[in-house]
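Notebook p. 47: complex prediction with adenosine-5'-triphosphate.
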Amino acid sequence: MKEAAGAQEVSESERLLFGGPLRYDGGWSRHDGSFLELGLRAMVLRMPRLIGSTIRLAHRADRRALLQVAVAEAGGGIAQAVGLVAVNRVLAQLLEQGETTERLAAAAPALVAVAVTAVVGALLKSASTAGTGRLEPKVFRVATEEYLERVARVELAAVEDEEFHKLLDSAQWGAESARRMIRFCASVVTAAIALIAAAGVLTALHPVLLPLLAMMTLPSAWSALTIARRRYVSFHTWVQHARAGQLLGRLLIDVQAAPEVRVHNIGPFLLKHFRTMAETGEREQTRLASLAARTGLIASGWTGLATVTTYGVLGVLLWTGAMDLAVAGTAVIAIRTGSANLESLVVQLNYLYEESLFVADLDRLCREADRRLIPATGRPLPRRIDAVRFENVTFTYPGTVDGRPALKDVSITIPTGRIVALVGSNGSGKSTLAKLLCGLYAPDAGRILWGDVDAAEADRADLFDRVAVVAQDFYRWPFTARVNIAIGRPEAPYDDDLLHAAAAYAGADDTVASLPRGWDTLLARGYKGGHQISGGQWQRLGIARARHRAARILVVDEPTSALDAEAEQQVFDRIRDLAAEGQTIVLITHRLHSVRHADTIYVLEHGRVVEQGTFDELMRPDTDGPGLFRRMYLVQSEQYRLDGSAALSAPQDDRTAEPQR
Ligand SMILES: Nc1ncnc2c1ncn2[C@@H]1O[C@H](COP(=O)(O)OP(=O)(O)OP(=O)(O)O)[C@@H](O)[C@H]1O
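Predicted complex, structure tokens below:
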């Protein structure tokens, strides 16, 4: 694609930091619904629909304000039209033969009409400004809510999909564009009505003047649309590049990254690449600007030619006596007013066009999100189930480059009220298995049965409701301590007793008590009153959150990696108590001593279950399997034996620490 020229120039920063070019080669424009593939004809055909959808948004946002703007703009257009006719009338009277006083007297009523329309026009303009000002932020909010509400409900796979993310990037501009479209729609109405009036006056003076007027305006219309289309193509080609550049800027001020930025002196490194990325972006802007200048110059040349032709035709009409001098004078004024109106209409339509391209992206995101929504219906899960069973489950993450499955032919059983442990080396598939259990992904092959209901057909809301997760990378919400626990059940009223009980359960009560504003302490540095807590303290809050959720199955993925030895022991004791109370526990950990009490241990390796059994069964030297668990356990024990004495005075590596018996 010609417009995307320069898209292939790849900076060293892109290559080094992001592994290659962050540009789109135009392939996106072949996607369903792309404006550019269809060209200007499509714009004409689609714009009414997009304007319609913006007006519907406005209607939903504030009906009264929309009505006010519509009436004021239509009224303003009519006032301008009447004003123009009156001005022409005044000129016609003044250029008549006869006494000056008589001509002035004859022009007086039209002069009064000019004054009245000017006052009415000004009043309506201010009414429209007030209405637009009220409407615009509401349209922005409604448009933003529309896509955010959908995006929050799409499948996790969609959120992780790069194409979907790109749509999200441009759709965010779409909401802003919908807001701006209100103003441009209003201006188009005014300009169109005024133009109709000017065209009417011109046609009445001489029919040939109307096509001449159109001819004068066509070049600038062409240039404006061409420049807008080029800007849109460029935006899409560079959208990820721009995001990556902003990311570098943000990293420099990120609170989490701040210590490393300083100690490792990463600031100059990031700044250097920020500058390179920005300069690459600037070159694209320069390219667009020089193309725009060239297009503008060509358009001006054509406009000049058209203007000369128009006045030439007027001269010929005068010369041949086909037009009076008085009429010709009025015609000059009408041509000037008409071309100004047409120019303004073209400019407004062009803005509308440019914005509507982004509103179309928003539209596309909403359609794509609708296609990828988590189904709202499904089979209800049985009230009581004996177990969740994985039957020959295979799963590959969408978009995996080498296509290697994260889980292969996995069959496990998670009986209700029992502790099931998943162990294995890094990347063996433990967390993936937990995500499938939680209903975040669906297997490519095999089934996950909740009692006799296949999770693929189950009511997902029901399924989500039954699980609580303390993920390895559980989210540290930048809110107060209270919300960080209560968000485990966001729909439930905030009951302090329940929150306190959950905090006490996870040993987070001391943490909360030590905070400067207790439960109301904001746990986010960089905000007023924001406070930072340690990794272990966060982990306790994460466990408290999962406890507060009080779901039937608790999935804990490395729950104690940041806890001190005493707290770790406490957490495992508590988890055991939960199982005794009937809650099902799925425990993922590298600390093999902590799975001693599990009812079943599954050992994963390269996405497969390679061993299963109780701790004692897996520790037997004559075990049937490859003895992986036993070997891993012995390595950890050995590590402890070697480090044992040192461990008394120095902290151990958590993952290789010997079991505390
Ligand atoms: N969101 C994802 N998208 C694509 N691939 C992923 C994703 N998450 C994990 N993987 C890949 O799936 C495989 C299994 O990862 P998983 O996180 O399940 O391992 P794990 O056993 O939990 O490892 P660890 O002990 O390090 O936590 C790995 O090869 C990993 O690269």
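Notes: The chain has 19 helices and ten strands. The two ends are 68 Å apart (CA to CA).
Next step: compare against the earlier run before touching the bench.
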